[in-house]
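Researcher: Let's continue the batch. This sequence belongs to Trehalase-like N-terminal domain-containing protein, and it's 239 residues. Same format as the previous ones, please.
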Amino acid sequence: MTRYPPIAEHGMVGDLQTAALVSSDGTVDWWCSPRFDSPSVFASLLDGERGGHCRLAAELPGSDGMTVRQLYLSDTAILVTRFMAPGGVGEVADFMVPSGASAPTGTHRLLRVARVVRGSLPFALSCQPRFDYGRATHTLTRTDEHSLVFRGPGTDLHLQSTAGIVFHEDGSDISARFTLSAGQAAAVVLTSTPGGAPAPARPSLEGVADDLEACRAYWLSWLRSCTYRGRWPASRAPT
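Model: Same format as before. Here are the C-alpha cells for Trehalase-like N-terminal domain-containing protein:
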C-alpha cells in the first residue's frame, strides 16, 4: 500500500452518528468522533506523518506472497479485510454497532476482530491517535496490560483488547504483535467517550461475538425496509 492509498482502497464503517475509513491494508486512517464533523482522532488520510492512525493487519516479512482483499459481510456494513498467504488465511472484521438511540450519544465503539481460518498468521497492531487533526497533544494512561486510555482535549479514546494481545508503549503511542492459528480470534476495541467519563468494561470474545451479531442483525433489519430495485442492489447496504 502507498502512504496515501486511493479512496477506492477504503471501506467505511459507521453507527449513523460517526464513521471510520479503513484502507485495504488494515489501517483506520480517518475517524472523527463523536460526530461526523467532530475534530479527528485519526486523520492519516490527510497527513501520513501527523494525522494519526490505527493499523491492525497480518504482517509477514516483506509481505511475501500475501494477497489482500476487502469486502463487506453480505448485506451489512461489517467490513472484512482478508489476508491470504502461503502459511495461512486470516481476516480483520471492522464494525460499529448502531445504538438505535434517537438522540445523539457521546460514546462510540469501533470494534476490530482478527481471526485465522487456515494455518497460522502473525498480526501487528499500531495505534497512534492524533487529536484535532494533529494539532492537539494527548496523554497515555495504562490501566492494565490489556487496557489504556489516550486523553485528548475533551475526548478520551480507550483502547482495550481481549486475551492474547498485550500492549507495548512507544512514547504516547501503542503497538502489539501476536500470532493466531486456525480457529483462534482476538479483538481490539476503540471506545471514544467524553473526557473524564468512566472506562468501559474490558471486552471478551463472547461479548464481541454478540456485538457482531447485533450489528449484522441491525443492518439486515434496515435493509428489509429498503425499497431500492435498481441496477445495483448489492450497493444498497449502508455504511
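Researcher: Any comment?
Model: DSSP finds one helix and 15 strands in the chain.
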